[in-house]
Amino acid sequence: MEKILVLDFGGQYNQLIARRVREHHVYAEIKPYNKITIDEIKETGYKGIIFTGGPNSVYDDKSPHYDAEILNIGIPILGICYGAQLMAFMADGMVASAENSSEYGKTTVKVEGSLLFKGIPEESVCWMSHTDFIKIPPMGFKIIAKTSKCPVAAMCDETRNLYGVQFHPEVTHTIYGKQMLYNFLFEICSCHGDWKMENFVENSIEKYRTELAGKKVLLALSGGVDSSVAAVLLHKAIGQNLTCVFVDHGLLRKDEGDFVEKTFREKFGMNLIRVNAEERFLRKLSSITEPEQKRKIIGEEFIRVFEDEAKKIGKVDVLVQGTIYPDVIESGKGDSAVIKSHHNVGGLPDVISFDEIVEPLRDLFKDEVRETGTRLGIPHELVWRQPFPGPGLAVRVIGEITKDKLDILREADAIFREEIANAKLEKETNQYFALLTDLRSVGVKGDARTYGYTVALRAVTTDDFMTAEWTRLPYEVLEKASSRITNEVSGISRVVYDITSKPPATVEWE
Ligand code: XMP
């Protein structure tokens, strides 16, 4: 399979670059610049390399650099922003700082004849975001684009197939960015575009059918998109040799546990064990109010429940994990502050005896996982399921958790989601849910005083959940949801809408 290497120098659009390449049906993988040697690059046989942007200046000693020999190994390279400056620096060109004239945002660029700009008009709009710039290109390079402020908006050495662009072709604001990446891949790197999702599905099924033949395979199914797709993919490959364990901690949304069970057991005929552990979890959580403590307890209890099940199953050969590509990249990065200890199945390998871990989705982005799921016939509501935290409604019942509160929340949340669906707004907001605050307030129903809980509704718009805007839902939808919740769910006397973005707030309240 032909591959492009995205050599990561710490820029903010690195995942986007890889996705854009894959949209052209060429497989791209991201490697941090300090995690791959020049010999490994040569051995892998990449068709091309893209140097990403980065937050630094090439003259800063601490900024990421790479062995300049990479320019001479015969693999075409496209440097983007910092990557272009680095290329110029490595080949002895001149990079300067434009302290007072940095370019940021949409900028008109003029391009000249070059394979990189084949089929692109002489003048168009590109996305710039830089302070440093290439002042003089290295020997052997020619200037192939300019802006009013940037004398070398793009350069190339055609004999070595080295290209550098100061702007960001991967960002949609660069009108012809897609065409430029196409030109780099197909005109310059001579790719064929053989990375197709249908091949991925067929090849994976075939591969695991052979590799896992006769083996006992175990998967922790959460009902989330990733573990569901991994489960169905492996089920197609090895059928009943796959056992899925679904731990129902009693903190799921309305009817969710039954839906998961029905889908996998009845629709797909899988070997599914549903563990109803509600009581066990609620006992552990009783009188706990501190969010981190809740998360820790749930994470640990999840492992204990799984351990008990694993004992019954006995020795397994293979443990499957639903890791996806962004998880792989994230885990390769340095430590950042722990805001919330996210719960996933990462702790499982310690408690189960097995020989091997298989991660069938580790090369895929989320949208590719969804496409795979659709191709495998997984129901739309599961494939397009909005993110749901591992600790479930425990972090949406603020303060102490009780079964009553969970039931109240489940009803309110179901109504809110139904109203979003009725208004056909599911695609307009990326995550939306209700939560139950521990604040009670006075209300009036008929002639009687009420003293019920306050429900908060939350809806956010985001690309990556690292930052998020509160969604401007129409008042009518909020009104309908509020009126139905206070009328249909007993125990609630007030509904509020959360209008805080992230940062400073997080998406979940706990
Ligand atoms: P926060 O609250 O950190 O949420 O802004 C960002 C996204 O992550 C989800 N989330 C979790 N997902 N395990 C998960 O798998 C967790 O423990 C967890 N906590 C938050 C949250 O729903 C949002 O989509």
Can you walk me through this structure?
- Helix content is 32%, strand content 23%.
- With 510 residues, it is α/β, with parallel strands linked by helices.
- It has three domains: 3-188, Class I glutamine amidotransferase (GATase) domain (Rossmann fold, 3-Layer(aba) Sandwich), CATH 3.40.50.880; 197-383, Rossmann fold, CATH 3.40.50.620; 403-497, GMP Synthetase, Chain A, domain 3, CATH 3.30.300.
- Strands 2-1-3-4-11-10-9-6-7 form a nine-stranded mixed sheet, sandwiched between helices. The chain has a five-stranded parallel sheet with strand order 14-13-12-15-16, with helices on both faces.
- Helix 13 runs antiparallel to helix 14 (475-488).
- The radius of gyration is 26 Å and the shape is globular.
- The structure holds xanthosine-5'-monophosphate.
Q: Features of this protein?
A:
single chain, 510 residues, alpha/beta, Rossmann fold, 3 domains, 5-stranded parallel β-sheet, 14 helices, 32% helix, 23% strand, binds xanthosine-5'-monophosphate
